[in-house]
Amino acid sequence: MTxxxxxxxxxxxxxxxxxxxGEAVAQALVEAGYAVTITSRSDREITAAAEKIGQGTRGxxxxxxxxxxxxxxxxxxxxxxxxxDVLFVNAGVGHFANVEDMTLEQWQDVIDxxxxxxxxxxxxxxxxxxxxxxxxxxxxxxxxxxxxxxGGAYNASKFGxxxxxxxxxxxxxxxGIKVTQIMPGSVATHFGGHTPSDADAWKIQPEDIAQLTxxxxxxxxxxxxxxxxxxxxxxxxx
Length: 238
Known about the structure:
By secondary structure, the protein is of the alpha/beta class. Helices cover about 45% and strands about 15% of the residues.
């Protein structure tokens, strides 16, 4: 159910947002006045994140590999808030092994989450974004242009996501929808089972990507930064 108050606020739908970049982007957008839905596969983690962010943030369980679940939650967001202005496609996983050693299950999990899951989420959101003249952010990676040994599935998913993002720009630009690929290097997150610590101080921080997102949203409507590569400014010397 929507009210006049919720309809007057801009809204955002963010996948993979129980921690790290997704949570930081959600926090920044809520502070900027947005009504936000965040998703995760973990009920416990997404509930905790929504409570931490506060201000009416909706935390919902949603596996982006399930197109019906994604459509249901996007529709629920529009029903709750009266529209959709920003889609931040962030959900992602990584399994790393030589192609010969990678299992079919690992390959499918990465491609189905990082690429097909992005497609399902974007496709579900396009009608609502057209109505608002919205903005799509895809969280890619420098791995989407720089292959590395053992990165077969992850590289393929991010190369594919970049291609999908570029096509979306062409498909949607005359509907007033912007599409930006954000391609970070090393970020201090929990990705791959990592636990951020003081040793990660040199890395990009999730809050940096959140600030970038807010800054991009403030760009004039006539201007589109379609691909933004982000690197640590002073990585350790090798």
